[in-house]
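The instructor's notes for this session suggest beginning with a concrete chain rather than abstract definitions. Hand out the sequence below and ask the class to guess, before any prediction is shown, which regions might be ordered.
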Amino acid sequence: RHTRLQGDWSSDVCSSDLLTKGPNAGAMSALTGLAPNPMKEQVFKGVDFRTFTMEYQFAPRSRDESDNVNRIIKAFKYHMHPEYKDTNNFLFLYPSEFDIEYYHNGEENMNIHRHTSCVLTELNVNYTPNGNFSTFSEGRPTQINVSMTFKELTILTKELIADGL
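After discussion, reveal the predicted structure:
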C-alpha cells in the first residue's frame, strides 16, 4: 500500500514522468500499482446531422409484384443522386429531399418519432439475402432485401424536440 504525503506535488510530477516517459515505464507502473492521470477532457464541438436506416424485405410472388419492386428500387436510386444543371456538366442540382412520415389508419402516427427533411445517402440491394441466389423461371429474384440510409438536413435542437420532432 502506498501513502502519499500531502502537499508533495513535485514528487507526484516526477512519479508521473517516470510512469510515462522513463525507461521501463510500463514495468514501473505495474510494479508501483500507479498510473498517470492523462487529464483528458471532452470539449463540445458540435452535433452531426442525424442518420437513420430503413430496411425492407421484398418477396414478389408474380411478375407484376417483381416489376413493382424494381420500380421502387429504381425510384429511390434515381432520387438519391444529383443531376447536371447545364449541358457542360459543370454544376449539379441537389438530389431529391425526402419527407418521411409514419401513418396508422390513414393518419400520421404521432406515437413514433418524426424526422426533418432528409436525403438518401446509401442504398444497398441484396439479391441473395438467404445466402443463395434464387430466381423464378424467367430470372427475376424471389427475394430482395433493401437497406436505405438517410441523413437529415436539419440539426436537431432542444427547441425542435420540444415542438414534437
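Then share the key points. The first strand starts at residue 51 and ends at 58. The mean pLDDT is 85.
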